[in-house]
């Protein structure tokens, strides 16, 4: 009897896993049938994902979702953006409310292993820092003992903050907010002395202050924050599509293929370019996409460098240098496997 029960339990478990995998593997087909990609973004962060007065979204994370839509649907505008707080983001993805999360989210071991999620890559290498009011007279984070610190709830930022102050033997008073915009408002209204977040977010939030010149970002970087898009585990086909969307953009920049010259590149004799834009090989078929999937990404959204510079680069209000986000051939660490 015991062996029989054990066998039945094992069979049921296997069936459940198989059923779950089948359900989880439907994202690519679902998006194609729906004709629209559901993308989770922030509630508003300049340079990464923010709506204008007409509800039109822009930013690095926004453009990445448009790149996925271009790859899958051939239309970068076929995206529905779902604004989410840090606390809401993972539940929205787990429940199927969104197809991909592209929301300044840090890749960590815990998130990668225990939440049923997969990070597809890194769209922005970042690090946590501190912003203070200049009249505080502080030049270093080591002078923040006893400070009140505005921080976002349910983020790695909150954990890193505790680790840093404990390691340095300093005390602080956390002032916790659910949304990034609320954190900035708390800082500007004087509810805290310091605002901590990823440095890219600090530069973005500073541009929204009534007097941006009244605040400064301190030099210390206290963490590694590899930010990237996230999908659900158990759906390798969708994971591959979203992952190779980013890899296609990185390879395009390395190969010199841009939104302006991609049409001309169809006559290229370079085998790597031909495979990338679909004039040779069956790369699209391997992903369950059309042959011109990557060409659509590049033509409609651009390569990685174009996407970066347009949203957060030196000619934008954020004025963020490429730094670690430069290609490996230019002194950075952005690197993609080859399309072959």
Automatic annotation (TrEMBL):
Pfam assignment, any one: SBP_bac_3
Keyword Transport: yes
Signal peptide per UniProt: 1-21
Keyword set, alphabetical order: Signal, Transport
Gene3D superfamilies in the record: Periplasmic binding protein-like II
Annotated ranges, domain Solute-binding protein family 3/N-terminal: 36-264
Top-rank lineage group of the source organism: Bacteria
Gene Ontology biological process terms, A to Z: amino acid transport
InterPro entries for this protein: Bact_solute-bind_prot3 (IPR051455), SBP_3_CS (IPR018313), Solute-binding_3/MltF_N (IPR001638)
Membrane spanning residue stretches: none
Family per similarity comment: Belongs to the bacterial solute-binding protein 3 family.
Name of this chain's protein: Transporter substrate-binding domain-containing protein
Higher taxonomy: Bacteria, Pseudomonadati, Pseudomonadota, Alphaproteobacteria, Rhodospirillales
